[in-house]
Amino acid sequence: VRPSVRPPRFPSVTSLPQQLKQQRDKLRQYQKRLSLGLERERALARQLLRDGKKEKAMLLLKKKRYQEQLLDKTENQISNLERMVQDIEFTQIEMKVIEGLKIGNECLNKMHQVMSIEEVERIIGETQDAVEYQRQIDELLAGSLTEEDEDAILEELNAITQEQLELPEVPSEPLPEKIPEVSPIKNRPKPELVAAS
Predict the structure, then answer these.
(1) d(CA 13, CA 19)
(2) Do 64 and 41 touch, CB atoms closer than 8 A?
(3) How many helices and strands in the chain, by DSSP H and E?
(4) From CA 80, how far away is CA 72, in angstroms rounded?
(5) Cβ contacts of residue 23 below 8 Å, gap of 6+?
(6) DSSP readout, 91-133?
(7) Would you state the pLDDT for residue 182?
(8) Which of the pair, 115 or 96, is modelled with greater confidence?
(9) Distant-in-sequence, close-in-space partners of 107: CB < 8 Å, separation ≥ 6
(10) Are residues 92 and 13 in contact, defined by beta-carbon separation less than 8 angstroms?
(11) Which residue has the higher pLDDT, 95 or 7?
């Protein structure tokens, strides 16, 4: 029976920058240890030269040189890791922007399905008609009528006045003769009251 082979597990996109930063920090610690070791070995090589142990000093300097090359490689790896972290973080930002654009597009498409261009044109037309109608009302109320409007209003007023002023017909029979006037009853003077003393 063959054992099942698990596919390799890759870190999630969100945790990847954190793991890369941890690797970078470990490389920096390693770099710091190498730098301290180089200083010690340089001092030790000087001591060996003073003691006349040139071959041992030479071996120590070769080891030091190799560690310096490692230090340079470590610096390059740290730079690569930092650049990769920045690239991944920027790509994550781009992905969020793209996701936002996608959601926005879907929302716009749904809104466009609800409201067609014809519907918008109809609403705009109705709005313009309502605005024009309101403007006419405002002009009437504000008294800003043109001369033509004033003339038309006066003509209509005269027509209405003529309709109401229809005089009664003149009677065809002769008018009655003058009736004698009746004299009114004279008022008697009221007796004056005398105040008692």
Answers:
(1) 10
(2) yes
(3) 4, 0
(4) 12
(5) 81
(6) HHHHHHHHHHHHHHHHHHHHHHHHS-HHHHHHHHHHHHHHHHH
(7) 60
(8) 96
(9) none
(10) yes
(11) 95
- In single-letter form, the type of residue at position 130 comes to A
Q: What is the pLDDT of residues 74-98, one digit of tens each?
A: 888 888 888 988 898 899 899 999 9
Distance (Å, rounded) from C-alpha 147 to C-alpha 153? Answer: 10
Domain spans of the chain, in order of start? 15-157
Which token pair is 32? 């710091």
Residue type, 5: V
User: What does the pLDDT look like over 132-178, one tens digit per residue?
Assistant: 988 888 777 766 667 787 788 888 888 887 776 666 676 777 766 76
**Residue 3: which pLDDT band, with cuts at 50, 70 and 90?**
low
Contact 65, 112 (CB under 8 A): no
What contacts 24+ positions apart, CB below 8 Å, involve 138-144?
none
